Amino acid sequence: MVSPCSPHIVIIGAGFGGLQTAVSLGGTSAQVTLIDRYNYHTFIPLLYQVATATLEPEWIAVPIQSHLRRWTNVHFLQGIVEQIDYGEQRIITDQTTLKYDYLVLSTGSQTHFRGVPGAQKYAFPLRTLTDAIALKHHLLQCIEEASQTPDPDLRRSLLTFTLVGGGATGVEMAGALVELCRRAWPKDYPFLRQQPVRLLIVQSGAELLPEFRQPLRTYTYKRLMNLGVEVQVNTKVTAVYPTHLVLDTGVHIPCTTTIWTTGVTVMLPQGQTLPQTAQGKIWVLPSLQLQQYPEVYAIGDIVQLPNQSVTGLAPVAVQQGTHAACNLRRQLKGYTPQPFRYFHKGRLAMIGCFLGVGQIGPLLIRGLMGWLLCLVVHWIYVPGYRSRLIILLTWLQSFMTGNKLAQQQLMKVRSPSTSTIQSPS
Ligand SMILES: Cc1cc2nc3c(=O)[nH]c(=O)nc-3n(C[C@H](O)[C@H](O)[C@H](O)COP(=O)(O)OP(=O)(O)OC[C@H]3O[C@@H](n4cnc5c(N)ncnc54)[C@H](O)[C@@H]3O)c2cc1C
Fold this sequence. Notes:
Layout: E1 8-12, H1 16-24, E2 31-36, E3 40-42, H2 47-51, E4 61-63, H3 64-68, E5 74-78, E6 81-85, E7 90-93, E8 97-99, E9 102-105, E10 109-111, H4 119-122, E11 124-125, H5 129-148, H6 152-158, E12 160-164, H7 168-188, H8 191-194, E13 198-202, H9 214-226, E14 229-232, E15 237-240, E16 244-247, E17 252-254, E18 257-260, E19 264-266, E20 270-271, E21 282-283, E22 296-298, E23 303-304, H10 314-332, E24 347-352, E25 355-360, E26 363-367, H11 368-381, H12 385-401, H13 404-412
Parallel strand pairs: 1-2, 1-9, 2-5, 6-20, 9-22, 11-18, 12-13, 12-18, 13-14, 21-23
Antiparallel strand pairs: 3-4, 6-7, 7-8, 10-19, 15-16, 16-17, 24-25, 25-26
């Protein structure tokens, strides 16, 4: 039962970590306020399918209010947290000021363009639903313009798609673009059969998917090459322009679409200086508390734990969310918080065109099996029964008849007010 003198727990960020913390605190005696800039939670791992017009944006987003409605002690507040005064235990948002007894920071990360000239202005990030929608509209515009222009150089530039970063997001996006450009679009744009699309991954490291084991990296590289994707390793993009990009080898690539999938930086509201790593992550105690402020927990992409290197994954944020809630319950009862230990279930990545890779313990999975596993795991975790059903039917239809949704989206490109989900201004 929540009373006016119940402790007030504020959670900032309704991503994977924050939402899980809020749900895990449902039904407790604490009064919980969850704050996010958006009023919906996004299932980020499927953003690339929204960007490539396989799924509609609203199918991978769930309204936060409806997700929390069964808990009377958990409230949602839409707003941007601008400042935190850890000493005074006060949060200033663009809407109001709140006091807290306990705080959970779960503000996640954002794309980091590493100061590359033109990247922030001309490259497309893929971090939020708004990013995915913007990228989808741009891709559709490119194909439409390429079909109409008489200028062969412009057409080549419009049909060149460069992915900066060869991690899981870059590889998944490349595979999805292969499917879009080779299977879906040529049905409506026969000129694509004569004028092939150029797909390029630029990777600063020596290999693709560096977080996977060697055989899977080699497998991914070979399969992408077979699918016609060019891979440039040990190469960096040094400048991005609207019509081309420049590599550190000096090569200029005519290209209207640069998709930035590498590099993230933590997002933290202003406040007192906290101990941070060189990458900006906050050092936390094994219990996920801040050393100077034991009433403050930090979870997900923004934290660095001593002796634990796994980070930047949704399951890490979810498990930390559950653990932070558990420790808060302990603190409320006067017990000592317990250290967090991550249970690593494995890693999966989709290559596309019925191929995927995965590593689960010592087991290495590749090919059709990896692809199926990737789809099933993503599908299971998509929030909401209705979304899961629609996604399953859409995928089945795509596999049997090609991406009909992508073809339908082409009709909308001339009236680009397509999104049903509005981003807050
Ligand atoms: C394209 C892409 C694909 C990915 N695919 C996978 C995958 O397949 N598997 C996997 O395990 N991981 C994947 N990840 C990583 C995974 O999404 C992150 O590790 C996870 O989202 C981190 O969760 P989080 O709770 O820390 O932050 P997030 O989920 O990013 O949530 C942070 C929340 O905080 C809110 N917020 C931030 N600042 C403020 C503020 N000042 N005021 C109010 N609200 C604020 C944001 O709006 C956001 O809702 C992917 C990431 C990307 C970008």
